[in-house]
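Tip: read the tokens left to right.
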């Protein structure tokens, strides 16, 4: 059955990969990203019924306006995937500027909350839908030089598990660790060693079927995409 899937951060990396794969498998994708140029490319490449918008998830008003437009045109999403996230510049925590930490929190935590505020009520009204908040290995463990990123992903784990307890039967909220994938973000952290990890093109072939198999009984369970 065709699903309506909303994905944040679709301009590159995992967000772009899953959006493309979901579309390839016949599902309808609604996506957003901050890069206006990339959004135009996505619109040109995929066309209708898919819908791509230039939205900064850290900006509550932008998310609110976007939700109002979409929920008039589409039913509430079957899958809401909060993927958008940024990484701090690698440094000890005491050297990371507070402004940089604030920006990371605005995207990685508050951005997720904004999507929940403005899309989940319509899903709850239908008592249907799955919310997937991308976590990280660094949402369940820690490493030096990425303390603020770790903090944001540990927050996503707790936020999602608490949200799961608030949802009606028939819905689920799942903190999902995508695993260690060779992305631009991983290259920032691991340098040349990043190439030793799973390619996005290989990962997405496992990730999309895994996501499509998630069900209400997975509510609140911290999961990881299989290798």
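Filled-in amino acids:
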């Amino acid at each position: 059955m065709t699903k309506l899937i909303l994905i944040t951060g679709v301009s590159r990396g995992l967000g772009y990969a899953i959006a493309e794969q979901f579309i390839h498998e016949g599902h309808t994708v609604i996506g957003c990203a901050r890069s206006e140029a990339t959004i135009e490319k996505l619109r040109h490449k995929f066309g209708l019924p898919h819908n791509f918008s230039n939205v900064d998830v850290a900006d509550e008003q932008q998310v609110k306006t976007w939700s109002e437009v979409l929920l008039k045109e589409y039913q509430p999403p079957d899958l809401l995937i909060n993927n958008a996230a940024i990484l701090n510049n690698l440094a000890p925590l005491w050297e990371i500027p507070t402004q940089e930490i604030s920006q990371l929190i605005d995207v990685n935590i508050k951005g997720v909350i904004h999507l929940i505020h403005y899309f989940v009520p319509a899903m709850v009204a239908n008592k249907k839908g799955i919310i997937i908040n991308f976590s990280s290995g660094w949402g369940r463990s820690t490493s030096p030089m990425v303390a603020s990123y770790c903090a944001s992903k540990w927050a996503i784990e707790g936020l999602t598990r608490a949200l799961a307890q608030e949802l009606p039967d028939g819905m689920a909220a799942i903190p999902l660790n995508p695993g260690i994938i060779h992305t631009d973000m991983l290259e920032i952290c691991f340098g040349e060693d990043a190439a030793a990890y799973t390619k996005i093109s290989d990962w997405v072939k496992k990730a999309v079927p895994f996501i499509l198999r998630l069900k209400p009984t997975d509510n609140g369970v911290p999961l990881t995409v299989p290798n």
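The first helix runs from residue 13 to 24. The chain is about 45% helix and 15% strand.
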